Amino acid sequence: MSNITTTPEQQAKYYVLCDLEEAVKRLIQHHESKRTLWFSSDILPSDEGSPNDMVIAELRDRARGIPDCIRVALALNILTEEGLPHFHRLIADNLGSRTHWSQWNNLWTAEEDRHGNILRDYARDSRLLNFRVLERLQFNYLRAGFNPDWGGDPYKIFVYTSCQEKATQISHLKTGKIAASSEPLLDFITQRISQDEARHYAFYMSVFKEIIERDPNEALASAAAIMPSIDMPGISITNFNDYADVVRRSGIYGPRDYKRIVEQLIESWGIEIMMSLNELGRKAQDKIMAIPRRLERIAEYIETKSQEKSFRFEVVFGRVLEMA
Ligand SMILES: [Fe+2]
Ligand SMILES: [Fe+2]
């Protein structure tokens, strides 16, 4: 199934994933039945006719009111979405490129591609960011690669993507909400993206639920390895920590949001109430159940330690942001 050399344990997991073919087909059908497909050109003007000049002028006028912290968040969201080649490859490498999983990977990639497109179109039309800088950041991010250490364990990809889709759902939604008073169109766009992310979350979360039903002990062991902290997809973006810090200080996404994601997954996967586990499974269950308390301590620590700080991002025209 995978083109990576596999151990007998990994092979056993691939058999479980093969056994999921019918479930995956059903989940894809369900996913597509719930989805309205939209494109950037449905929402933003795409031709150069004169009526659009007015639309663009109004857009730029509204966008002037968007605070710099939202511009930083938007730049990070664009870069994260434009990192799509990393994720298509990771899914293909881990799940095989000639299996029923490739149907999902192709569909998911096509849907995700629209997110980068519309955010990029919006930021460019509105003149919100320094595009020369943004494009170089994107180039470097793609060239740097993204290779989380999953040790060839195909279960981990579903834990990671469940966490990640929920994190992007929150980030997009809150970015738009903060900008909404000056720019309702950005709020509208990020709501659309966020709804897609919610459906992707539902897919990955449901797949992992199926895995838990078939192979509970190994599934929990994989979840326990990923859930304590996930490598954010943009981790190899230049100055990623500053971006993440601004996003946290702006109330868009931070450790408390991640804690809520973990709690929601624990509940949706029924981890607390799982019985009849072997030693591997019980240990993993205990480890997972301890994560929210640990994340609460981390959040408290960061909040207490956090002091006023100034940031400067070339992508926001080198302006200085003073943040509490
Ligand atoms: Fe996305
Ligand atoms: Fe997504």
Please describe the topology of this protein.
Blueprint: H1 8-19, H2 21-34, H3 40-43, H4 50-63, H5 68-82, H6 84-95, H7 100-126, H8 131-144, H9 154-179, H10 184-214, H11 216-226, H12 240-249, H13 255-268, H14 279-289, H15 291-305, E1 309-312, E2 320-323
Helix pairs in contact: 2-10, 5-7, 5-9, 5-12, 6-7, 7-10, 9-10, 9-11, 9-13, 10-11, 11-14, 13-15
Bound molecules: fe (ii) ion (FE2) (2 copies).
Residues 112, 165, 168, 196-197, 200 line the site of one fe (ii) ion (FE2).
Number of helices: 15
Number of domains: 1
CATH architecture verdict: Orthogonal Bundle
Shape: globular
**Name of the CATH first level:** Mainly Alpha
Question: What about the largest sheet?
Answer: 2 strands, antiparallel
Helix content: over 70%
SSE string, helices as H and strands as E? HHHHHHHHHHHHHHHEE
Strand order of the largest sheet: 1-2
User: Poorly predicted ranges (pLDDT <50, ≥5 residues)?
Assistant: none
* Alpha-carbon distance between the two ends: 50 Å
Rg (C-alpha, Å)? 21 Å
The number of strands is 2
What would the keywords be for this entry?
two-stranded antiparallel sheet, 324 residues, Ribonucleotide Reductase, subunit A, mainly alpha, 15 helices, 2 strands, binds fe (ii) ion
Can you put this structure into words, describing what you see?
With 324 residues, this protein is mainly alpha-helical. It has a single domain, classed as Ribonucleotide Reductase, subunit A (Orthogonal Bundle), CATH 1.10.620.20. The chain is built from 15 helices and 2 strands. A two-stranded antiparallel ribbon has the order 1-2. Strand 1 (309-312) and strand 2 (320-323) form a beta hairpin. 38% of the residues are buried. It binds fe (ii) ion (2 copies). One fe (ii) ion is lined by residues 112, 165, 168, 196-197, 200.
